[in-house]
Design brief:
By secondary structure, the chain is of the alpha/beta class. It has a six-stranded parallel beta sheet with strand order 5-4-1-6-7-8, covered by helices on one side. The protein has a two-stranded antiparallel sheet with strand order 2-3. Helix 4 packs across helix 5 and helix 6 runs parallel beside helix 11. The longest helix has 14 residues. The radius of gyration is 17 Å and the shape is globular.
């Protein structure tokens, strides 16, 4: 068992009967993109620093940014005192692209997806609030498109609309048989609102929120590495 699971106070046996995972009951696993599959925290943060400079606002440290950042983007920007929200989002999106060379894929992603793809009965999808162009570019850049049965561009988190669209497109029989994995409190809130199992992944150098903030979303489980997901699926099969 992965040590990080124990460090966070969770174990495979602690899932109650309503959350026990049997491989033949897992219909789909859905993933957030940024901070979960792709490490673009630096690009997002540096783009935000540029945005603050443009509007003569004090730039936060990376630690402060992770403590304050939340979804949806308009609400976060409004909380930070920005007035021209649409213009600010447009500038931030373009600034993000200038730092695209800093974006990388987390090393556990491809091995985990390859193993999950061996389970023919489990569908895989992406539900991400990252703008369309960046989602497509990042999935293509890291050769991830073929792993997924559907990709939903979600502007609504923490509202569940994006996840509900994914369930509909994948023809899921029961939302309770679906897991959504993300790195933010709002990912967990959206999953719960869609009646999906909310799992969180905390990456010390890649998640967009601090661990304590993520926990406020009441995830069913917190992992630090997608290898733990494969271990759970394997245990359910044996």
């Amino acid at each position: 068992m992965i040590n990080a699971t124990l460090e966070l106070g969770y174990s495979l046996k602690e899932l109650d009967s309503s959350n026990n995972l049997q491989s033949n009951k897992i219909e789909a696993i859905l993933f957030d993109l940024s901070g979960t599959l792709v490490n673009d925290l630096s690009a997002v943060y540096q783009g935000y620093v540029d945005l603050c400079k443009k509007y003569n606002k004090k730039s936060p440290s990376l630690t402060q940014f992770r403590e304050e950042f939340r979804l949806p983007y308009p609400d976060f920007l409004s909380d930070e005192g920005f007035k021209e929200i649409k213009d600010a989002i447009y500038f931030w999106k373009n600034a993000y692209t200038t730092y695209s060379s800093s974006i990388s894929i987390f090393p556990d992603v491809v091995p985990a997806l390859e193993n999950l793809r061996k389970q023919d009965s489990i569908k895989l999808g992406v539900v991400s609030q990252t703008p369309k162009e960046q989602v497509e570019e990042n999935l293509h850049r890291f050769d991830l498109e073929d792993f997924f049965d559907n990709i939903i561009l979600d502007r609504w988190k923490p509202k569940p609309k994006g996840l509900l669209l994914a369930l509909e497109e994948l023809n899921i029989k029961s939302a309770q048989n679906v897991i959504y994995i993300g790195d933010m409190k709002e990912d967990c809130e959206a999953a719960r609102a869609a009646d999906i199992k909310p799992w969180a992944i905390y990456r010390e150098k890649g998640s967009f929120q601090a661990l304590e903030t993520i926990k406020k979303g009441s995830p069913t489980k917190i992992i630090r590495d997608l290898k733990e997901l494969n271990a759970l699926i394997f245990e359910a099969m044996t």
